[in-house]
Amino acid sequence: ELYRGAQSYFLEVNANGGIHGRKIELVPIDDRYSSEVAEEATERAVTDERAFALFGASGTEPVAGILKTLKKHETEPTFLWGSSSPAEASREGPLAPFAFNVRGSVKTAARDVVKALGAASLTKVAIVAQDNAFGKSCAAAARKAAEERGLAVVAEATVSGGLRPDDASKNALDVVRTLRNAGAEALILGMTYNPGAVVTRDAREEGWNVPVAVMGTPDTMVRHLVAHEHKTGRRMTNGLLGCVFAPPVSAEEAHDNVWHL
């Protein structure tokens, strides 16, 4: 969707003369959602394609691989623009200068999620994260945000990032039962859409209808849950909160490591 949407706009720009007479060429390179492959893809983009900018990247680990390679080529005028990832590597530390962000960080998402749960008078939350760098950063941010707002984290758990709603052999029922027994009034999910759909589905299948807030991109997760609703007749999408902080690009100030155009 991102590629098609971007290409449709770039074609319009090109049809109207391009940018200062130069046309935009969008070259797709697959990073396979892997840090190592992202390094190879970025190497090709910088050296073979002589790219002016990298765009459309997603995922904490791929973004880290991209930025690592851009730093290696720091004498080249190339940068990562508009990544859909909230990765901290693109906001803090030695790799941050090679990224121009238009999406909020995991810290921003955590604060927004916890604020919403607190506004609903919930005081006890559980944090569930997937077992990779993205999950760890989400869990740390959610824990800190809950502490700052006075919400108690009554339980934390980790699930495999490889959980998929179409794989009946794997589920998160044990995790869901443990968190329910801990007395959590809401779940904060630090994970991508596949494991997020599995955890939410299993909570609803158990009759546990507490609010579920996901810090990853929620759209595909919702589609999975709606499909399960149609298949089973059971409600899956009640009490869901998705948080993707994408500020207006007309803003002039920098806020929370999100630089606005």
Structure commentary:
This protein has 261 residues and is an alpha/beta fold. Helices cover 41% and strands 15% of the residues. It contains eight helices and ten strands. The protein has helices spanning 2-15, 35-47, 60-72, 106-119, 133-149, 173-181, 193-205, 219-232; strands at residues 53-55, 79-81, 99-100, 124-130, 152-159, 186-190, 212-214, 240-242, 254-255, 258-259. It has a five-stranded parallel sheet with strand order 5-4-6-7-8. It has a three-stranded parallel sheet with strand order 1-2-3, covered by helices on one side. Strand 1 (53-55), helix 3 and strand 2 (79-81) form a beta-alpha-beta unit. The chain is elongated, with a radius of gyration of 20 Å. Residues 254-261 have low confidence and may be disordered.
Q: Determine Rg (CA atoms, Å).
A: 20 Å
Uncertain spans, ≥5 residues at pLDDT below 50? 254-261
Cα(first) to Cα(last) distance is 23 Å
- Class from helix and strand fractions: alpha/beta
Q: How many DSSP-defined strands?
A: 10
SSE arrangement, N to C: HHEHEEHEHEHEHEHEEE
User: Order of strands side by side in the largest beta sheet?
Assistant: 5-4-6-7-8
Mean pLDDT: 89
Strand-residue fraction? 5-15%
Overall helicity: 40-55%
Report the biggest beta sheet as strand number plus sense, adding barrel if it closes.
5 strands, parallel
Outline: elongated
SS field, number of helical segments: 8
